[in-house]
Automatic annotation (TrEMBL):
<keyword id="KW-0233">DNA recombination</keyword>
<dbReference type="InterPro" id="IPR013762">
    <property type="entry name" value="Integrase-like_cat_sf"/>
</dbReference>
<dbReference type="GO" id="GO:0015074">
    <property type="term" value="P:DNA integration"/>
</dbReference>
<dbReference type="InterPro" id="IPR010998">
    <property type="entry name" value="Integrase_recombinase_N"/>
</dbReference>
<keyword id="KW-0238">DNA-binding</keyword>
<protein>
    <recommendedName>
        <fullName>Tyr recombinase domain-containing protein</fullName>
    </recommendedName>
</protein>
<dbReference type="GO" id="GO:0006310">
    <property type="term" value="P:DNA recombination"/>
</dbReference>
<dbReference type="InterPro" id="IPR011010">
    <property type="entry name" value="DNA_brk_join_enz"/>
</dbReference>
<dbReference type="GO" id="GO:0003677">
    <property type="term" value="F:DNA binding"/>
</dbReference>
<dbReference type="InterPro" id="IPR052925">
    <property type="entry name" value="Phage_Integrase-like_Recomb"/>
</dbReference>
Length: 296
């Protein structure tokens, strides 16, 4: 079409081109498979175009009413977003059985997954993503065994684990957040045991001085282990990813009747969007029907 990559100041003309771009993405996508993009993906692409113009051309692209109407239509005709399933305590126990703890890498993976589960960590907060690592990824110096008050101590006398995260993707000012989780009382699923597994694995792998707690463990490796486990138990493997760890922790807290403020603070959510994360389990609805038939 030989269009310029820059949109002109004409709002109507700019929105017409953005609209055609959105329709093309919805119909064909942008990869060789020619599968159309979903509404959420198109929104991200349009946001990138707007940011690029603002950053390099000092121009703010205004969305016209006709463009808003077009996007509403795309949203209505797009398939619903497939939510990932949470890792549950039962899922974690099955994962434990599949791992070979004689292999330091498997021990590192187990400890990392457990720590992410108990602290509701985003993958970028404790894992490598491809060849990239975020500046706020959990550092070795910011994770330690602690007493009930959160003061550093030895493994033998510890009753909790404390971690510090220097920022996150929703904390661009780098306000360090410290969180403490106490022993669970479970023989397998416990934050104190998780950190112990991590430290032993690092030593066995020869990376005891690695600046990042989970060393070189990649998000893709964790996701693949989840998918392999899901396939082995007969559930769709596409339902599981590293995001399932954070969802799983939030779901377990919600099912365990933890108050919403505790979940929000532990997960470091800046607003109430965390309410979309937990998945309602059968256990969490026990007693609800009886409350619906009580006569005042």
């Amino acid at each position: 079409m030989k269009w310029s990559k820059w949109l002109k100041d004409d709002t109507k003309g700019a929105n017409e081109k953005l609209g055609l771009f959105a329709i093309y993405c919805w119909r064909f996508g942008w990869k060789q498979g020619h599968r159309g993009n979903k509404y959420s993906t198109i929104q991200l692409k349009l946001a990138s175009v707007r940011w690029y113009h603002r950053r390099h051309r000092d121009k703010v692209l205004v969305t016209s009413p006709s463009m808003e109407l077009l996007l509403r239509g795309i949203k209505r005709m797009s398939d619903p977003v497939l939510k990932k399933q949470p890792v549950t305590p039962a899922f974690l126990r099955l994962l434990y059985r599949r791992l070979d703890f004689a292999r330091p890498h498997d021990r590192l993976l187990w400890g990392s997954v457990l720590l992410g589960y108990f602290f509701l960590l985003r993958r970028s907060e404790f894992l490598r993503i491809g060849s990239q690592r975020t500046a706020y990824c959990l550092k070795t110096s910011d994770a330690f065994f602690s007493n009930p008050e959160g003061v550093r101590t030895t493994y033998g006398s510890a009753s909790s684990v404390t971690i510090g995260l220097a920022g996150s993707k929703n904390d661009q000012y780098g306000r360090c957040a410290w969180r403490t989780m106490h022993v669970s009382g479970d023989a397998l699923l416990c934050p104190r045991r998780a950190l112990r597994h991590l430290l032993l694995a690092r030593r066995a792998l020869g990376c005891g001085t690695h600046p990042y707690l989970c060393a070189e463990l990649k998000a893709e490796e964790v996701a693949q282990d989840f998918k392999d486990l899901a396939a082995s138990i007969g559930v769709p493997k596409r339902n599981y990813s590293t995001h399932s760890i954070r969802i799983g922790g939030a779901t377990s807290l919600s099912s365990g009747a933890a108050d919403s403020l505790s979940i929000k603070l532990l997960g470091r959510w800046m607003n109430d969007c965390f309410g979309e994360y937990p998945v309602q389990t059968a256990k969490s609805t026990v007693g609800l029907s009886s409350k619906m038939v009580v006569t005042n």
